[in-house]
Amino acid sequence: MDSFMLLLEGFATALQPVYLLYALGGVFVGTAVGVLPGIGPAMTVALLMPITYSLDPAAALIVFAGIYYGGMYGGSTTSILLNTPGESASIVTALEGNKMAKAGRGAAALATAAIGSFIAGTIATVLLTFLAPIVADLAVGLGPVDYVALMVVAFLTVGALLGASVLRGLASLALGLFIGMVGIDDSTAQQRFTFDNPNLVDGIDMVLVAVGLFALGEALYVASKLRHGPVELIPVSKGKNAWLSREDWKRSWKPWLRGTFIGFPIGTVPAGGADVSTFLSYAAERRLAKGENKAQFGKGAIEGVAGPEAANNAAAAGVLVPLLTLGIPTTATAAMILTAFQRYQIQPGPLLFENQSALVWTLIASLYVGNLMLLVLNLPLVGLWVKILQIPRPYLYGGILVFAALGAFSVNFSTVDVGILLVVGILGYFMRRYGYPVAPMVVAMILGPMFEVQLRRSLQLSQNDPVALVSSPFTIVVYASMALIFAGSWWLRRRQAALEAVEPAKEEISA
């Protein structure tokens, strides 16, 4: 009941006209940027972060809630119409969504994605509303060794799950840890890894790293592969095919619900993520389909769009549970949201619901509002997003480079930051060029300093006895769960590889 009353107070703030405009602007801009080819939610948040610098904390977080959900939905548009996923979680949507678009049913695919995202986002936000305070109460009793265990799980699983190679994922993780250590040592107040450069004494700003990796690195990588000619875009059909038929509704509503209850729990655990939940949802729908519906998989089955898109948005809400209650980002997008919190001297964690109660409940209320606005905007504005997709790539990424440089300069109004952005951007290019995932690096840079503080505190309390790191029942359960998760992720990767191998073979046979 207390949570319900606090949520009502959050709605009282979020429904103020000025905050409604902020939410609408966040959803609109987030979707508009997220719709662009190759731009995922993390890059969307990184690019748009500078526009919130002049806002008060409540307004900034409401804008980010809109950008977060808008960017998540935007990726489905590029996956369906261009077969170009903006992130790994949109890959599964492209499998069936692009086939539907080629068959003249792109509007139905976009509609089931929008409605499924709304339903899943709403249900998942309800679960977040009542689950997050409970988790926060439990987290208050966790000690330093327990946090060390949680962060180890986050490090290893993010490094292993977000890349084709575990070793490359862990290498990216290690690089992020190194960058996170640059600056002043909290325990000794000594400089480290600054190379006597006064510009590095305060460390490297997270915004510079995020924008450099996601925006500049992606732009350079796309430019290196750019080919002349217009973007091949499948037009959205009109007339009787422009909306969901009765049969489409019948085939979509169960996948929406199944995807929601697959995505949310996976998003809440440190080893979760939307990419895992979307694959599980797609595999479940393929297994449950019967008769003619089953035969459509690989040729444009609407269940293969409805389920994964619902799982994707449900996992997006689930990711906020460890972020708000433990202060642990488990995805690159969550790491960017944590950066936004920290810019306002707000530290997510067990005490957030006590120390910043009004702010956090306003944020949760704005998730409901933003999710509704997302549906209202995207169904009638599909034609507008299609026009945005037709922007020539050179102009598109040229604009991104200018916006990224301005954003970097606006952090501290220093040209040195623009130089750091360039160096990080070149690093991001080479990471993409040679298959190193960038998301583990961002997560490690955020978690690294936190991990160091908790590890040192644990060893000080135990008089440098490493056995103490696995002394509590909670740590034993966490490390055992981590072993099971790694075994499960290995099995999932084998299933996914087999699934991806089957699709090209079917296409060759049909051709």
In brief:
With 511 residues, the chain is mostly helical. It is built from 21 helices and two strands. It is globular and about 65 Å long.
Instruction: Please provide the count of β strands.
Output: 2
Strand order of the largest sheet: 1-2
Beta content: under 5%
Unreliable segments (pLDDT under 50, ≥5 consecutive)?
Answer: none
Q: What's the shape?
A: globular
Provide the domain count.
1
Order of helices and strands: HHHHHHHHEEHHHHHHHHHHHHH
Report Rg.
22 Å
Mean pLDDT, all residues: 79
H/I helix tally: 21
SSE-based structural type = mainly alpha
Cα distance, first to last residue?
59 Å
Query: Tell me about the biggest sheet?
Result: 2 strands, antiparallel
Provide the helix percentage: over 70%
Structural account:
- The chain is mainly α and 511 residues long.
- The protein has one domain.
- It has 21 helices and 2 strands.
- It has helices at 2-14, 17-34, 41-48, 57-82, 91-102, 106-139, 144-161, 166-181, 206-224, 246-268, 274-288, 291-295, 303-326, 332-343, 352-355, 357-378, 382-389, 393-412, 415-433, 439-461, 473-510, and strands at 183-184, 191-192.
- Strand 1 (183-184) and strand 2 form a beta hairpin.
- The chain is globular and about 65 Å long.
- The relative contact order is 0.18.
- The mean pLDDT is 79.
- InterPro entries: DUF112_TM.
- Keywords: Membrane, Transmembrane, Transmembrane helix.
- Pfam families: TctA.
